[in-house]
Design brief:
This protein is an alpha/beta fold and about 950 residues long. The chain has 28 helices and 31 strands. Mean pLDDT is about 90; it is low at about 610-615, about 680-700, about 900-905 and about 915-925. The structure holds one RNA strand of 76 nucleotides.
Length: about 950
RNA sequence: GAGCGAUUGGCGCAGCUGGUAGCGCGCUUCCCUGACACGGAAGAGGUCGCUGGUUCGAGUCCAGUAUCGCUCACCA
C-alpha cells in the first residue's frame, strides 16, 4: 500500500443528471444495454487462474419459478458481480433442467400423448391440439415414439425457458446468455452417456437383479435419495401361526395381505421366549405354508410380539433377512401394486383356492380386507386390529407407499456398498470409496460451514449403491443393447456398448454397430435397453456439461474444476453429493472448490412456501411492483444457509435505498458541476437567488462539468474523516465478500451510505454550495465517496447504480474495478473516522434542541453550548463552521469539556427566536 | 432415537477473537429545509429461552434443559 505509485487522477465528465430521478424502467433499459454491449459475456481467452466459474443450478423447466428461486439466484448473482468487479472473468452459465419426470408429465398432459416404445420415429408427426386446461385421459392419449415424445418435450420446454430467461434478465442476473444448456440437449445426453460408459468400463456402473424400492404409480424403481418417510396410518394385526403341536405363535403385522408371501418367522437370538422354536417350522394361517422359525440380530424383542413375519418383500428388513438368511423368494406384489393374478406355486389346497377366489389381481388394500375377514372367520386373528401411526417410505413425488419388487436395474457405485477403486494415478489410493467420498466432503468448502454435516450424514449413512435406471421415457437413454441368444433369451450379462463417437444414442430406435434394425428382438439379434437414466444421473454432470468435457478441451481447461456450486440445502444429498461422486470417479477431483447453500423462503407464518398452500407470489409481479433492485435487496439481506421470511417490508426498504442512491448521487453531481451553487447565506446576492431553479442552473453552467477525483483536493479534516470511515467500510465489505458473506458487506455499505447522507451531506452542504476555497474539498470528497459507494452497492443494486454511473462515468459499473481503500486512505491523510462521528453527534444535539422545541430544522439557533468529551473536542472544533451552518447557529456556539459523557450534549440550552416557536400546540387528548 | 440450526425490544434481524446491548420495520412527537415527502429530525421500547458453571466480568465460553425448524434413522 505504501509503495504504490500515485494512480492517475480520474476525471469524470458529468453528461446529464435528470431533473427527476426514477427507478422505473431501469430493468428493461439496462437489460437491453447489457445485452447489446455483451457486458457479461465470458471471455474464453482468459486462463484458469483468471476465471471464476459457477456451476449454476438449472431450474426445472416444467413449472414456474417462484420467490425462492429469486432469493437464491440473487445470492449467486451478487457474488458473481463482486468477483467480476474484482477482476475475475466470471463464467456464469444458465441451464434448464428439462429432463425427467416433471417434464414428462407436463408434456403428456399438454399434448395428450404417451410414449409407446414399440413405435418407430415419425418425422412428420404433428401433436394433437389440446385446449388449455383440458386433461386428456390416459386411455385417449395418442401413442408416439420416444423420439417424437422427446421432441415435444424440447418444444414445450423451449417456451418455458424463454419465459424464465425473461425473468432472470429482469431480475438482473449477470449470466452470460450465450452459455446455456438443457439437461436433455444433445450435448448433455452425450456427456451423460459417455460418463456412464466410462463408469461401466471401470466397473463403477453395474446391473443387478435384486429386490428394490418401487413406485407403483409411476411404475419405476426409485433411488434412496428420492425417498421420503411420511406418516402413514395403519393397523396392527395380531395373527396366529401354528406350531407342530397346533399351539399358536402370535406375530403382529401391519401388512396381513403379505401372509401368502411369508418365508420365515424371525426373532432375536437372545430372546428366551422364542429360543425353543428356533429350528422348528410353523404353519401360516389360511394358507398352511410351513415356514422356519429363525434367529437374527436385526429382530427387535420390544417391537410388536418380538417375533416378526418375514415376507418377500414387505420392507427393507425383509430384504436383509432374505439375503442374510438365504431365504426363498415368494413375491406376490406386482409392479402395478396388485397381487399377482396367478396363484403362487407354493400355495395349494384351500390356501390356493382362497387366493384364486379372493386375492388374485387385487390391490394391496382390498387384499388386506379379504385376508383380515378370513383371519377373523378362521379364528387366527387375536382381538381386533389396533390403529397405529408409522413412517413409511414414499417416492418424493408419489402418493402411494413404495413396494419392494425384484427387477433388473443399473447402479453406479457411490460408496453405499463397499468398493475399492483401482489405484488412481494422482494418489495411488486404494481406499474404500465411501471413505474417499467422505474425504472429498471435508475438502469442499461449504458456505456456511455447518451444511457440511448434511453431506457427511448422507454419505456416511448410505446403505446401497446409486440406482440410476428408471422405467420411464423422457430422460437420457442408457446407451446399451443386449444380444438375443439363439434361444430367444436376452443376454443381459454381455451388453453391446456403442462407440463414444456415436453418442448420443437411443437404443430403442437405433441399432448397434454391426447390426441391422431388422435384427431387433429376433434370435441372434439384439434388443435395446429400454430404461432411461434418472435425472440426477445427468444433472450430477453439470460441471462437465457446461465446461465442454471431451468436447472442447480448451474451454474445459479454463473452467474445470469449477469454483462454486450454489444450490439449495434440500438437494445436498442428491445434486451436490452425486456431482461429487461423478467428479471423483471420472476426474479424480472435486467438481468445485466451494458450495454456497441458500436457505428456504418461509411465508410469514414460518412455513415453507409452497404451491399447494397457495401462498406463492409470482416473481415477475413482485419485481414489477417493487423493482428488481428492491427485491434483490431483500434477498441479499439474508445470509447463506439461513431461512428467510418472505418480507415485502424489506423490499420497500430496498427500494428506499435505491431511490436514495439516485437522489444522493444527483445532489453530489449537481453540486460538483456548480448547478446548485449559490451565494453564501446573508450576502446581497442571496436575495436575488430566490427566483428559482432556472436562475440557479444558469449559475451552474459557468462551471466545468468535469470532476477530478483527486485526493489531493480533499483538505478539510471533516472530509478526510469521512473518507477514512469509507476506507474501513471498503475493507470490511471486501473481507466479508471474500468469505461469501454478502449480507455483512451490504450491511456495512448501507449503514455507511445512510450516515453519509444524514450526517456528512448535511454537514458539508452549505460549504459545498459556496464558492469558498474549502468548497472544493467537500465537493471532491463527495464525488470520491459517491464513486466508491456506488461500486460497493453495485452487486446488490445493479440497476440504480448503473443508472447513476451512466450520468458521469464511461462503460458499465459492473465492469468497473471493485473499490480498494488505498486511494481513500491517501485522501484521508491519517485523519481518523471518529471526527465525522463526533461532528455528527454535535449536529444531532443541535437537531434535538429543535425537535424538542417542535420547530423546523431551519430555525436559527441564537446561542448554544455543547458539552463534548475532551478527546472529541479538536475534531468538533475543526468542523465548527460546518456544524454551525448545518445547525443554522447564528449566535455563539460554545464547546465545553464533558468527561462523563461520550455523546455531545447541549448544556445551558439554546435560544431560538420567539416568533419561530409560535403558539404551543394544543394538547388534545387522543381517543 | 441421532445430528444440525435457531431462541436477543411488537415484528424481522446484527452482535467478529467475552467487558453490563445494536440496526431496520412498526409505534410516538415534530418538520413539505432548494438531492430526495418513495423525504427529514427527535423519542419510547429489551435484565439477550431456562438452570447451573468458568471468569474480576458472559447474548458472547462450558454443561444441562425447554421450545421451534431441518436432516438422517425408525415400515414386525
Amino acid at each position: 500500500m505504501s509503495e504504490n505509485v500515485a494512480a492517475p487522477v480520474i476525471k469524470a465528465t458529468v453528461r446529464e443528471v435528470p431533473e427527476r430521478v426514477s427507478l422505473d424502467g431501469l430493468e428493461n433499459k439496462f437489460d437491453a444495454r447489457w445485452r447489446q454491449e455483451g457486458t457479461y459475456a465470458f471471455d474464453r481467452s482468459k486462463t484458469r487462474e483468471q476465471v471464476y466459474s459457477i456451476d449454476t443450478p438449472p431450474p426445472t423447466a416444467s413449472g414456474s419459478l417462484h420467490v425462492g428461486h429469486v432469493f437464491s439466484y440473487t445470492h449467486t448473482d451478487v457474488l458473481a458481480r463482486y468477483k467480476r468487479m474484482r477482476g475475475a472473468e466470471v463464467f456464469y452459465p444458465m441451464g434448464w433442467d428439462d429432463n425427467g419426470l416433471p417434464t414428462e408429465r407436463r408434456v403428456q398432459n399438454y399434448y395428450g400423448v404417451k410414449v409407446d416404445l414399440t413405435l418407430p420415429y415419425d418425422p412428420d408427426f404433428v401433436p394433437p391440439q389440446v385446449p388449455d386446461g383440458k386433461v386428456v385421459k390416459p386411455a385417449d392419449q395418442v401413442p408416439v415414439s420416444r423420439r417424437n415424445f422427446i421432441e415435444l418435450c424440447e418444444r414445450l420446454t423451449a417456451e418455458d425457458e424463454k419465459q424464465f430467461e425473461e425473468l432472470w434478465r429482469y431480475l438482473g442476473l449477470s449470466v452470460d446468455w450465450a452459455q446455456t444448456y438443457q439437461t436433455i440437449d444433445a450435448n448433455s445426453r452425450s456427456v451423460a452417456q459417455r460418463a456412464f460408459l466410462r463408469n461401466l468400463a471401470r466397473g463403477e456402473a453395474y446391473q443387478a437383479e435384486a429386490p428394490g424400492l418401487w413406485d407403483v404409480t409411476f411404475q419405476t424403481a426409485v433411488a434412496q435419495a428420492e425417498l421420503e418417510a411420511r406418516d402413514y396410518p395403519g393397523h396392527f394385526h395380531k395373527v396366529a401361526f401354528r406350531a407342530a403341536d397346533d399351539s399358536p405363535i402370535f406375530i403382529e403385522t401391519t401388512r396381513p395381505e403379505l401372509i401368502p408371501a411369508v418365508v420365515a418367522l424371525i426373532a432375536h437370538p437372545d430372546d428366551e421366549r422364542y429360543q425353543p422354536l428356533f429350528g422348528t417350522t410353523v404353519r401360516s394361517p389360511l394358507f398352511g405354508v410351513e415356514v422356519p422359525v429363525l434367529a437374527h440380530a436385526a429382530a427387535e424383542p420390544e417391537k410388536g410380539a418380538g417375533i416378526a413375519m418375514c415376507c418377500t418383500f414387505g420392507d427393507l428388513t425383509d430384504v436383509q433377512w432374505w439375503r442374510e438368511l438365504d431365504l426363498p423368494t415368494r413375491s406376490i406384489i406386482q409392479r402395478d401394486g396388485r397381487l399377482s393374478r396367478e396363484v403362487p406355486q407354493w400355495l395349494n389346497g384351500d390356501g390356493a383356492a382362497f387366493y384364486a377366489e379372493s386375492l388374485a389381481g387385487k390391490t394391496t388394500f382390498s387384499a388386506r380386507k379379504e385376508i383380515v375377514d378370513a383371519l377373523r372367520a378362521s379364528g387366527d386373528l387375536d382381538g381386533e386390529p389396533t390403529p397405529t401411526q408409522r413412517k413409511t417410505n414414499f417416492f418424493e413425488k408419489g402418493d402411494k407407499p413404495l413396494e419392494i419388487v425384484t427387477s433388473r436395474q443399473w447402479y453406479i457405485r457411490n460408496g453405499g456398498r463397499p468398493f475399492t477403486r483401482r489405484p488412481v494415478a494422482s494418489t495411488g489410493s486404494t481406499s474404500d470409496l465411501k471413505d474417499e467420498l467422505l474425504a472429498r466432503g471435508r475438502e469442499l468448502a461449504f458456505y456456511p460451514d455447518f451444511m457440511r454435516v448434511r453431506y457427511e450424514n448422507w454419505a456416511g449413512g448410505l446403505n446401497g449403491d446409486w440406482l440410476i435406471s428408471r422405467q420411464r421415457f423422457f430422460g437420457v437413454a442408457i446407451p446399451l443393447w443386449y444380444p438375443v441368444l439363439a434361444s430367444g433369451e436376452v443376454d443381459y450379462a454381455n451388453p453391446i456398448v456403442p462407440d463414444e463417437a456415436a453418442l448420443p444414442v437411443d437404443p430403442t430406435s437405433q441399432a448397434p454397430a454391426d447390426y441391422a434394425e431388422g435384427q431387433r428382438g429376433v434370435p441372434g439379434g439384439f434388443v435395446g435397453e429400454a430404461d432411461v437414466m434418472d435425472t440426477w444421473a445427468t444433472s450430477s454432470l453439470t460441471p462437465l456439461i457446461v465446461s465442454g468435457w471431451e468436447r472442447d478441451a480448451d474451454l474445459f481447461a479454463r473452467i474445470y474444476p469449477m469454483d462454486l456450486r450454489p444450490q439449495g440445502q434440500d438437494i445436498i444429498r442428491t445434486w451436490l453429493f452425486s456431482t461429487v461422486v461423478r467428479s471423483h470417479l471420472e476426474n479424480d477431483c472435486l467438481p468445485w472448490a466451494g458450495a454456497a447453500i441458500s436457505g428456504w423462503i418461509l411465508d410469514p407464518d414460518r412455513k415453507k412456501m409452497s404451491k399447494s398452500k397457495g401462498n406463492v407470489v409470482t416473481p415477475m409481479g413482485l419485481l414489477e411492483q417493487h423493482g428488481s433492485d428492491a427485491v434483490r435487496y431483500w434477498a441479499a439481506s439474508a445470509r447463506l444457509g439461513t431461512d428467510a421470511a418472505f418480507d415485502e417490508g424489506q423490499m420497500k426498504i430496498g427500494r428506499r435505498l435505491a431511490t436514495k442512491v439516485l437522489n444522493a448521487a444527483k445532489f453530489v453531481l449537481d453540486i460538483n458541476v456548480g448547478r446548485l451553487e449559490r451565494p453564501l447565506a446573508g450576502s446581497p446576492e442571496a436575495k436575488a437567488d430566490v427566483v428559482g431553479s432556472k436562475a440557479t442552473e444558469q449559475i451552474g453552467t459557468q462551471d466545468s462539468p468535469t470532476i477530478a477525483l483527486d485526493p489531493a483536493l480533499v483538505t478539510e479534516p471533516l472530509d478526510r474523516s469521512m473518507l477514512a470511515g469509507l476506507a474501513d467500510v471498503v475493507d470490511a465489505a471486501t473481507k466479508a465478500l471474500e468469505a461469501y458473506d454478502h449480507t455483512r458487506a451490504l450491511e456495512v455499505s448501507e449503514a455507511f451510505f445512510w450516515t453519509f447522507c444524514d450526517d456528512y451531506l448535511e454537514l458539508v452542504k452549505e460549504r459545498a454550495y459556496s464558492s469558498t476555497p474549502a468548497a472544493a474539498s467537500a465537493r471532491t470528497a463527495l464525488a470520491i465517496a459517491l464513486d466508491v459507494m456506488l461500486r460497493l452497492l453495485a452487486p446488490v443494486l445493479p440497476f440504480a447504480t448503473e443508472e447513476v454511473w451512466g450520468w458521469w462515468r464511461d462503460g458499465s459499473i459492473h465492469r468497473a474495478p471493485w473499490p480498494t481503500s488505498d486511494l481513500l486512505r491517501e485522501a484521508a491523510g491519517g485523519v481518523a473516522p471518529a471526527g465525522l462521528t463526533a461532528a455528527g453527534h454535535a449536529l444531532a444535539a443541535l437537531r434535538k434542541l429543535k425537535s424538542v422545541a417542535k420547530v423546523t430544522m431551519k430555525t436559527p439557533i441564537l446561542h448554544a453550548t455543547l458539552a463534548i468529551p475532551a478527546p472529541a473536542i479538536p475534531a468538533v472544533a475543526a468542523a465548527m463552521a460546518d456544524i454551525r451552518a448545518a445547525g443554522k447557529v447564528e449566535g455563539p456556539l460554545m464547546l465545553i469539556d464533558a468527561p462523563e459523557s461520550f455523546d455531545p450534549t447541549v448544556q445551558g440550552g439554546i435560544t431560538v427566536p420567539e416568533h419561530e416557536l409560535g403558539e404551543p400546540p394544543a394538547k388534545t387528548p387522543r381517543a
